[in-house]
Predict the 3D structure of the following.
Amino acid sequence: MESTPAPGENIAVLRKARGLGQAKLARLAGISVSYLTKIENGIRPTTPPLAAAVAKALHVPVQRIYGQPFLGPSEQADLLNDLRGAVRRHTLPKEDVPDPAELAADVDKAMRLRAETKYLELLELLPRLLGQATAAALSASGEAGAWTLVSDVYGCAYAAAHRLAQPDLADMIVSRQAWAAQQTWNPEAEVAAAWNEAGTYQSAGQYDDGLAIVERAISRYEQAAGADTPARALSLGSLHLRGIVLASRHKDSNATAEHLERAKRYAERIPTDVLRHNLTFGQGNTALYELAAHIELGKPDKASEMTAPLLKTPPSHLTPSRLGRMYIDIARVKLEIKDYTGAEEALESAFKVAPQMTELHPMSREVIRVLFVLHQRARPKLMEMAKKTGLTQ
């Protein structure tokens, strides 16, 4: 079926290269031998926590387990190289200072493309925009608003690098975003940078370190921020959302519950989700993080209870990036409870609202792959999705 090795195949190859039997690797990763066997045989999905545990045991990056990056056309690699160059020249932009109105409009466009998961279009825009925004900030004699734009552009760049599985580039971008955020004197910009910094630890499977970043950012923001405003709720609530993911993947149910409870408390201040500095927060998005937490903590029944109202009335005010992720998580739930038709339908919805993200996301690829293996027959829609993700020719 596959034109690229499945994560289970990669695990088997790496395990044998290390001279490890299934029993020893299973013990090192904290899973059963039968579960590892199902992973290697392709009948269970390789989840992010499982990939992190196996990667640690095998002394390889998480991306090696998934076989990332899933680079397609050479144009994509060229665009990434252009972005690398722009990020490297963070204090030496080649671009001239643009018209302020045009710059603001382009930054808004970049944030919109990120939210719509249009990563290739975003990559085409980012190198020039990073240079222009930085040139404007450097010429503004420390004007905080100019540096906020720079930080926001780096936030968009992080999203592209992360989704295209470029961890080294994502790490470099995060350091640049933190540098820009420090020039803003804007606690919200620093929260956005911390959110992405914690995300790099999440991608690497270092969930405890990511939680430490979140806790530090919460403490710093609480010391720096002023009155109890919606902006405060959005910033702290967003950090707690990141904490939910990290804690649930770390299998810390108490920390997950604490972050979820605090996020819900802040979400009461923002009933309709708000997008600011590339962070989305409100009651709708908080519900999606709760759904994902139930999946990561191995509670498919609780997750399944949440899927029916979400499918009946999707939170239409959320961006495609969030809706796409919602459908991917619902597909994971449906696969876990053996509702294979429901899983396939959820993936179809994900492709409709966020096609580029769904093509690239490790868990959408895993659900598609497992469905293909379990069905053992060519279902037309499933075959089409497998082709889109490059899992079959």
Observations:
- The chain has a mean pLDDT of 92.
- The first helix runs from residue 7 to 17.
- Residues 187-298 form one domain.
